[in-house]
Amino acid sequence: MIQCWRLDDARQTLVLGVRDNHLAEAIYWGPRLPDDENLETLYGAHEIDVTGGMLDVNPELSICPEATRTFPGQPGMVVRDEMGKSVLPTFSFDGVEQSETALTLNFADAENGLTYRAHFAIDPQTHLITLWAELEGTRALNLHWLSAPVLPAPQLSDEMIDFAGRWCGEFQINRTPWSAGIRTRENRTGRTGHEHFPGLIVPCRGATNTQGEAYGFHYGWSGGHKMVAEELPDGRRQIQFGNATQVEDEARTLFKTAPLYVTYSNSGLNGCAVAFQRHVRDRLITWPHPERPRPVHYNCWEAIYFDHNLPELKEIATIAAGLGAERFVLDDGWFGERDDDTSSLADWEVDPRKYPDGLTPLIDHVRGLGMVFGIWFEPEMINPDSNIYRAHPEWALGREEQILGRNQLVLNMALPEVRDFLFERIGKILADHDIDYVKWDHNRVLPTPDADQTRGTYALLNRLRTAFPDVEIESCASGGGRTDFGILEHTQRVWLSDSNDALERLKIQHNAALFLPQCVTGSHVGPRVCHTSGRVLDIRFRAWVAAQRHMGFEMDPRELTDEEADVLRRVTAWWKANRDWMYHADILRLDAADPAVVAEQHLHEDQFVVFAGKADTSDQISPRPLRFTGLDPDAMYRVDLVNRDEIARVALSRGRSMLKTGAMEVSGRYLMHHGVTLPWSFPETMWVIEGHKI
Ligand code: DGJ
After folding, report:
1. Each residue of 528-550: pLDDT tens digit?
2. Which phi and psi angles does 172 have, rounded to 5°?
3. What pairs with residue 229 in β-bridges?
4. Neighbouring residues of 357: CB distance < 8 A, sequence distance ≥ 6
5. In whole angstroms, how far apart are CA 262 and each of 65, 515, 528?
6. Atom of ligand 1 at shortest distance to CA of 478?
7. Which residues contact residue 416 at a Cβ distance below 8 angstroms, ignoring those fewer than 6 apart?
8. Are 226 and 243 in contact (CB under 8 A)?
9. Mean pLDDT on 26-47
10. Which run of H or of E encompasses 429?
């Protein structure tokens, strides 16, 4: 007997089918099918043939492949009983709950006393499908591995795209050709990590940023994930995502995966990117002040580091406000006796040596300048050199003998007394001061990965947010080490990287846009000489790169020349004038013909802006036209260069290209199929082009 169900939105259909009460299979996932498609026929049609050297019937590539059905690849769960004996389930269909946009399939294994539930929910507006799995036992079980419901990967795909990275170099794209066998990514650091963003894009052959088919995956969990992309000997491909293996310390009767977010796109990688961006912005994030425009940040870290001095901070705040900043963030160094990174984490009380009258004089000054005030914490960490560690060494996670990271240990967030302590200390700072914002840092990996740690952190975040609903929170972990949709359900911004080098940032944020919208992605104008690369970059480039995302400044503003300050003021004013519609815009990565150009188009309804960053010198002597995307081909657009003033600086641009002297009116078709010929430019510069439908 065959039973099938479908979930649809306007652009995709996912069909699940059960035969003979076995575990379900995703038998189709792709463009929206006709309403009257016969799903039972599809079930029969999707089955692959049997020839010599195969089993007599092909085991299903089910939503949780079972070893007991002779599945020739990685199983969807690995479980042992409390005695350590393998539990090898064989599930049977046990009912379904379905609404128009959601489906839960229930399966039972009576012999082993197990229940497996697979959940699927489609969002017709954002086009994301959310999947998660639950495993319940009548007796306690030890979980080694549980995948979110497994989906097939397309056959007409030659490669997969996943992400590597490092401190100051997040979101590096890996392209790996498909071949027989497994590509595994497993993050055992206990946090999302710079190195292991939990995402995957499987483009079909020929797909680019702007066209073709692609499948996107993101696992929304901050404790480290495992991904399995496997091609079976029979050619079928499966994608599994779940928590890293062996992260459940205790035997339990109920386990749940985090949500796996997936989408099918018929508009290139951008179709996936837009679905992810919109889902984060419109579904996951909860804003304390939804009506308030995203405020321009000033963060003092790279200006003063640990050297806090009230008159200087006031001076810096005054200059930052004059440049256009609207939020002042006091970074590390305000508490305990924190004069460097060797001490005081967990001693969350204001340092009376640096702030004899507390933080209020600084906060009043900041508020008097019209800015709101934010403050840094690193709640999950403790220095051995701290009063709290001396009082509670047992609060630290892991063995006494262990390698420190940035001179610190991790607090055991599974302990209620640790969470109570943090709630009380952080809560006191928030309750006693006029604080609008917390930067929540996490600067080392865990001694060993542990899912309870992540659950404990989420619980503390929930409790603080309930008690202080007006406070926004930024997720930071030495830059982008905790960037994922799990943390974004509890926070409102990510500090994408500690690299304030605009050239590096241009690329990092361009790749991160495959998943992240503009409004949550922090980007700051750094010092003239970049502190993490030594590179010297012009203020125009630094300012425009920051203006691509949630804009902020992080240099010591006293270093700015009058001319630099003037440029920064103007670009910030441009950002403020445009931030309302840019909040709603999709970031579309452009297919630049010139690999030296990193270009993206922020598009909302009839308005767009293109940022064309010149990351390198070009091979050819003249700029190649840059094709835009997502426009109405038959409409006319008025296109203009926002930063025309910068042309005067490029003496080597001698030609007549039209945008140099004024706006032009051309069709969407021309913009998308010929593209705009930009003026010649130096590397490490940016052209900014605005467009409006006429
Ligand atoms: C790492 C962060 O990424 C930086 O921005 C800064 O907050 C430091 N920690 C402070 O210690």
Report:
1. 999 999 999 999 999 999 999 99
2. -85, 135
3. 183, 239
4. none
5. 19, 11, 40
6. 3
7. none
8. yes
9. 97
10. helix 416-432
**Closest residue CA from atom 11 of ligand 1:** 332
For residues 470-504, b (16+ Cβ closer than 10 Å) or e, as one string?
A: ebbbbbbbbbbbbbbbbbbbbbbbbbbbbbbbbbb
Residue corresponding to tokens 């967030």: 413
Q: Which residues line ligand 1 (CB under 6 A)?
A: 301, 331-332, 376, 441, 443, 476, 478-479, 495, 498
Element (H or E) spanning 327, and its range?
Answer: strand 327-330
Number of Cβ within a 10 Å radius of residue 51 = 7
CA-CA distance, 220 to 148, in Å (whole number)?
A: 11
Q: Which two tokens stand for residue 449?
A: 């990965």
pLDDT at 580: 98
Q: Report the Cα 145 to chain-centroid distance in Å.
A: 24
User: What are residue 297's DSSP bridge partners?
Assistant: 327, 552
Instruction: Look at residues 454, 548, 547, 440 and name the one whose alpha carbon lies nearest to residue 495.
Output: 440
- Residues 177-197 have a mean pLDDT of 97
Measured at the CA of 575, the angle between CA 671 and CA 362, to 5 degrees, comes to 160
565 CA to middle of ligand 1, Å?
A: 25
First to last CA, the chain: 58
* Residue type for position 598: V
**657 alpha-carbon distance from chain centroid:** 38
Q: HEC string of 277-336?
A: HHHHHHHHCCCCCCCCCCCCEEECHHHHCCCCCHHHHHHHHHHHHHHCCCEEEECCCCEC
Catalytic residue ranges: 441, 498
Q: Average the pLDDT over 39-44 and give the result.
A: 97
Does residue 4 carry a pLDDT above 90?
Answer: yes
Instruction: Extract the tokens encoding 40.
Output: 């039972």
Per-residue pLDDT, 13: 98
Instruction: Compute, in angstroms, the gap from residue 253 CA to the centroid of ligand 1.
Output: 39
3-state secondary structure at position 589: strand
How do residues 114-127 score in pLDDT, each as one tens digit?
Answer: 999 999 999 999 99
Give the mutation target among 443, 508, 530, 532 for probing the ligand 1 site: most ligand atoms within 8 A of CB. 443
> CA 191 to CA 440: how far, in whole Å?
14
The pair of structure tokens assigned to 346 is 């967990």
Ligand 1 center to residue 284 CA distance, Å? Answer: 25
Query: Mean pLDDT over all residues of the chain?
Result: 97
Is the CB of residue 406 less than 8 Å from the CB of residue 341? yes
Average pLDDT over residues 233-253: 96
Q: Which amino acid is at 397?
A: L
Closest approach atom of ligand 1 to CA 406:
11
- Residue 657 pLDDT exceeds 90: no
Q: Average the pLDDT over 303-323 and give the result.
A: 98
pLDDT band at 241 (very low <50, low <70, confident <90, very high): very high
Judge if pTM exceeds 0.90: yes
Composition of the chain by helix, strand, coil, percent to 5: 25, 30, 45
pLDDT above 90 covers a percentage of the chain that reads: 99
604: confidence class by pLDDT, cuts 50, 70, 90: very high
